[in-house]
Amino acid sequence: MAAYRDGIASLFKATAEAYDSPVGVLVNNAGVLLERAGVELAGIIQPTLEVNVDGVMAVTEAFLPLVSDGGQIINVSSGVATRATGKLSSAERAELE
Question: What is the predicted pLDDT for the residue at 85?
């Protein structure tokens, strides 16, 4: 995640310099599905969460100072997570609940 933070900081700086007015809407629309044939689920959980959860949090935290009073933050997601959780055992699913 540390490598992404530099990119987020650069994007924030460029946005802040390019626009004099506050941001009315921030849309988080980044996400990955790293599931591939032959890849173990355990090996993709951490990198998937880093992008799909930690990335959303990092971008939101970085850009929050630019969001205007009453501005909107929109997080776009999908139902892909249900595919991964469907492959978990009952005990693993219970741990997540």
Answer: 66
pLDDT higher for 77 or 13?
13
In which band, very low, low, confident or very high, does the pLDDT at 97 lie, cut at 50, 70 and 90? low
pTM listed for this prediction: 0.71
Residues 26 and 73 sit within 8 Å (Cβ to Cβ)? yes
Q: Which two tokens stand for residue 54?
A: 């930690």
Which tokens go with 6? Answer: 């530099």
Q: What is the dihedral of CA 63, 30, 28, 17, to 10 degrees?
A: 30
Q: From residue 21, how far is each of 4, 32, 34, 67, 69 by CA, in Å?
A: 26, 31, 37, 9, 12
Amino acid at 31: G
Cα–Cα distance, 66 to 30 (Å, whole number): 19
Residue 75 in tokens = 């997080």
Tokens in use for 42?
Answer: 């355990």
